[in-house]
């Protein structure tokens, strides 16, 4: 599409972004989605008159067709998944039956959201209807004790999250007996987010909920709401273990949307041929720096914008950079830009949500904490600083733009990363493909075991319960009995301990109790960080950003679960370095070719953060390395790996001296491209490469799931190995650098400082592997 065609008499958000010189050169593709007219339907006859009056008073004259279709199915007793586009009004599909039940006094509704922000948003929407007949209550970790008591005694609509259902409502089901006896509807909102280990845990929590509801004589209907996903009914059945109908025809209107693929420029002196050092690594401007500039530019034109950033630190950096730019160009707007992320205290999150809804904030840099359905109305632009991990997430984020029906823009800004680089130069991989299926594995023993224990503590398990928990349940129960966690009696299985069984399951995979981040001088709690991330994020000496303020960690106390920090002004960032080793426990699936073996199995991974680098702000120059003394962490998980014989290495022209760098570079690129075939984030997986692994006896490249027991990502890599490894080869081949860079084989989290890496040898290795395994012609390679 011609960029000139984007010009319009009234400057559009897209034209605003491209107004500055040389910006158009950064655009690799523009996908224009045309506007769509809506299809309305009649209000269902069963909807309570009070609900109809309240909705009409809010300006909803008639529902969209998909809203009525889903609501009718739920009211008739059929569980249903409503999978339509972002901002298509999916909430009305479950609010119609839920509010009617409350107005009629005929049943209660349980609403589950993956985030507190989304549940709070829905609570505000219900409250705004002014229905005195509806008693709705929030029930989450921020809810005061007296409000929790009121919810149990009086509420007929309870809004919560899977964590509270798992840790509080199900273990304390006797206190919820009156509510559960009348439970008629369960809403599972944004269910496409329940994938990997988290999704597998939520599947078990929902099975436990079904069992408890049956104990009280209830048989609720489930309504699941999702962004567009592949095979939504199949995904819903995996979550619920129930038959589920699907509604996928979107009847809502939509304004025109430009989706722009954007590649930041190479830094000055970094382009091939510009440096006197032939071995210099070309480096692109960071996606966060680019997003800061674009956010400031859009806010200065009073274009309401949200920038989605991959990490908490990145969100803080984008907001800080945008405020700095506005301080020079539009000082009056500096206070209308903020960061929003997990780890903030509850009062900070609520204040930001109110400011966003009221329009006081024009620009917000956020992690995916605001991706999942929060009603951010009036946005004209969305920036995505890095590939969000899946096409589903990309459309979910992009769909935040244009929610009022006007023309809008969504910009995907590529990180200096193999997958991002591949996608912005292969738009057909973004726009020409169906969205992904959710990957989850409820039969994972590391997931199933804790939930069977929790279920037994809630109500002793019987043989009749086992089909609900799947075919792996009997064997896992035997393991729990052998471990002394359950006792087998004639009537069934009983929990044997005094402690809470629900504490066995860490459903978010966060590694346990979060680490508090406290200002040492005042004792003020600034926020929290997940236990799994603490070693790399808040180690001694780490730089920590909070609401634009910089702190340095004085001491990480793992025993007391606290990181003590001090305010500081520094000119560097910190990056943890680690050592990882891997051993094969068992190979469960193996495919052998002539000299190449592809395997999927169980592995043990040991990981230790051993030091950190200090890098100068802006240039990234390493200015020092400091050792750390942190404990080793162990993980049993699933991995996909491939081995090559000496004959294959010879055919690829790889010598013994080349091999470590070739395998290491191939590992980095393989990690970077696995999210192309599996619904995962690069942070969900890890890798190890070795010239001679003791368990295989050969050169081996491993990519493993970063969650106990596995999350299904390695299995997707094994199943789609051809697409995955060929795309990895192509991404390396297409990169213009001479010897390797962040766009192809460098990794931002490499524990060895990206040494050794051999791009040319990795390309020969992957090309030969692809030729051996799938008999495709290898690339015409020219040696360095």
Short description:
This protein is α/β, with parallel strands linked by helices. The chain is built from 25 helices and 27 strands. The longest helix is centred in the first third of the chain and has 20 residues.
Structure report:
With 784 residues, this protein is of the alpha/beta class. The chain contains 25 helices and 27 strands. The strands form five sheets. The chain has a seven-stranded mixed β-sheet with strand order 1-9-14-13-10-12-11, sandwiched between helices. Helix 22 packs across helix 24 (721-734). The chain is globular and about 75 Å long.
Number of strands: 27
Please state the CA-atom Rg, rounded to the nearest Å.
27 Å
N- to C-terminal distance: 37 Å
Indicate the mean pLDDT.
Answer: 88
Q: What gross morphology would you assign?
A: globular
Q: How many H/I helices?
A: 25
Low-confidence stretches: 1-9, 776-784
The major beta sheet can be summarized as: 7 strands, mixed
Q: In terms of structural class, how would the helical and strand content be classed?
A: alpha/beta
Level of helix content? 25-40%
Portion in beta strands: 15-25%
**Sequence of strands across the biggest β-sheet:** 1-9-14-13-10-12-11
Topology:
Elements: H1 13-18, E1 27-33, H2 49-57, H3 65-75, E2 80-83, H4 90-104, E3 108-112, H5 116-128, E4 136-138, H6 145-154, E5 157-160, H7 162-169, H8 177-181, E6 183-188, H9 196-215, E7 221-226, H10 232-240, E8 245-247, E9 257-262, H11 287-300, E10 305-309, H12 312-329, E11 337-340, H13 346-358, E12 363-366, E13 381-385, H14 391-398, E14 408-413, H15 418-425, H16 427-431, H17 445-458, H18 466-469, H19 473-482, E15 486-489, E16 492-495, E17 515-519, E18 525-529, H20 531-537, E19 543-546, E20 549-557, E21 562-567, E22 572-592, E23 596-616, E24 622-627, E25 633-644, H21 646-651, H22 659-673, E26 685-690, E27 699-705, H23 713-719, H24 721-734, H25 759-774
Parallel strand pairs: 2-7, 2-8, 3-5, 3-6, 4-5, 6-7, 9-14, 10-12, 10-13, 11-12, 13-14, 17-21
Antiparallel strand pairs: 1-9, 15-16, 17-18, 19-20, 20-21, 22-23, 23-24, 23-25, 25-27, 26-27
Helix pairs in contact: 3-4, 9-17, 11-12, 15-24, 17-19, 22-24, 22-25, 24-25
């Amino acid at each position: 599409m011609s960029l000139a065609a984007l010009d319009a008499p009234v400057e559009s958000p897209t034209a605003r972004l491209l107004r500055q010189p040389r910006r158009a050169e950064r655009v690799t593709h523009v996908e224009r989605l045309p506007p769509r007219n809506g299809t309305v339907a009649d209000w269902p006859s069963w909807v309570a008159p009070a609900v109809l009056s309240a909705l009409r008073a809010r300006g909803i004259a008639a529902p969209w067709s998909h809203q009525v279709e889903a609501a009718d199915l739920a009211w008739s007793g059929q569980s249903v998944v409503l999978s339509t586009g972002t901002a298509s009004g999916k909430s009305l599909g479950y609010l119609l039956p839920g509010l009617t039940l409350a107005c009629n006094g005929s049943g209660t509704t349980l609403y589950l959201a993956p985030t507190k922000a989304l549940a709070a948003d829905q609570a505000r929407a219900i409250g705004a209807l002014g229905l005195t007949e509806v008693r709705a209550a929030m029930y989450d970790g921020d809810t005061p004790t007296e409000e929790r008591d009121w919810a149990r005694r009086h509420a007929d609509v309870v809004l919560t999250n899977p964590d509270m259902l798992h840790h509080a409502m199900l273990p304390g089901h006797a206190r919820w007996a009156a509510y559960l006896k009348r439970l008629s509807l369960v809403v599972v909102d944004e269910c496409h987010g329940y994938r990997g280990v988290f999704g597998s845990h939520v599947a078990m929590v929902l099975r436990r909920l079904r069992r408890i509801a049956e104990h009280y004589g209830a048989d609720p209907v489930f309504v699941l709401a999702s962004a567009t996903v592949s095979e939504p009914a199949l995904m819903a059945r995996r979550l619920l273990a129930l038959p589920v109908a699907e509604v996928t025809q979107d009847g809502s209107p939509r304004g025109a949307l430009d989706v722009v693929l954007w590649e930041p420029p190479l830094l000055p002196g970094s382009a091939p041929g510009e440096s006197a050092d032939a071995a210099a690594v070309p480096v692109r401007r960071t996606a966060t720096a680019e997003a800061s500039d674009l956010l400031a530019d859009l806010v200065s034109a009073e274009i309401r914008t949200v920038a989605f950033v991959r990490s908490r630190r990145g969100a803080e950096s984008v907001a800080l950079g945008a405020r700095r730019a506005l301080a020079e160009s539009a000082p009056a707007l500096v206070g209308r830009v903020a960061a929003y992320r997990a780890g903030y205290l509850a009062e900070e999150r609520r204040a930001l949500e109110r400011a966003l809804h009221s329009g006081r904030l024009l620009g917000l840099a956020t992690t995916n904490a605001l991706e999942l359905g929060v009603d951010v109305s009036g946005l004209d632009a969305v920036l995505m600083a890095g590939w969000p991990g899946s096409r589903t997430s990309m459309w979910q984020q992009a769909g935040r733009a244009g929610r009022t029906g006007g023309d809008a823009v969504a910009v995907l800004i590529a990180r200096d990363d193999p997958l991002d680089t591949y996608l912005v130069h292969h738009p057909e991989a973004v726009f020409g493909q169906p969205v992904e299926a959710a990957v989850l594995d409820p039969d994972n023993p590391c997931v199933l075991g804790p939930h069977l224990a929790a279920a037994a503590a809630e109500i002793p398990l019987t043989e009749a319960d086992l089909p609900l928990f799947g075919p792996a349940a009997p064997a896992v129960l035997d393991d729990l009995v052998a471990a002394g966690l359950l006792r087998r009696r004639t009537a069934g299985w009983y929990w044997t301990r005094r402690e809470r069984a629900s504490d066995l399951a860490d459903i978010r995979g966060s590694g346990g109790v979060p680490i508090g981040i406290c200002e040492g001088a005042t004792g003020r709690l600034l926020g929290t960080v997940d236990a799994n991330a603490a070693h790399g994020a808040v180690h001694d000496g780490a730089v920590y950003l909070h609401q634009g303020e910089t702190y340095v960690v004085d001491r990480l106390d793992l025993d007391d679960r606290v990181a003590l920090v001090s305010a500081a002004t520094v000119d560097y960032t910190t990056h943890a370095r680690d050592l990882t080793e891997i051993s094969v426990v068992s190979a469960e699936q193996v495919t052998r070719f002539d000299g190449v073996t592809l395997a999927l199995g169980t592995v043990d991974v040991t990981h230790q953060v051993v030091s950190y680098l200090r890098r100068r702000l802006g240039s990234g120059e390493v200015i020092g390395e400091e050792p750390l003394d942190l404990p080793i962490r162990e993980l049993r998980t699933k991995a996909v790996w491939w081995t090559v014989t000496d004959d294959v290495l010879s055919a690829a022209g790889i010598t013994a001296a080349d091999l470590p760098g070739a395998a290491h570079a191939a590992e980095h690129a393989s990690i970077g491209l696995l999210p192309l075939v599996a619904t995962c984030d690069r942070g969900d997986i890890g890798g190890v490469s070795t010239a001679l692994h003791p368990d295989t006896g050969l050169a081996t490249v491993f990519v493993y799931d970063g969650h106990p027991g596995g999350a299904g990502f390695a299995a997707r890599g094994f199943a789609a190995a051809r697409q995955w490894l060929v795309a990895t080869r192509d991404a390396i081949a297409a990169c213009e650098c001479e010897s390797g860079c962040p766009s192809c084989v460098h990794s931002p989290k490499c524990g060895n400082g990206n040494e050794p890496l051999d791009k040319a040898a990795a390309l020969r290795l992957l090309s030969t592997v692809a030729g051996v395994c799938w008999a495709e012609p290898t690339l015409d390679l020219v040696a360095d």
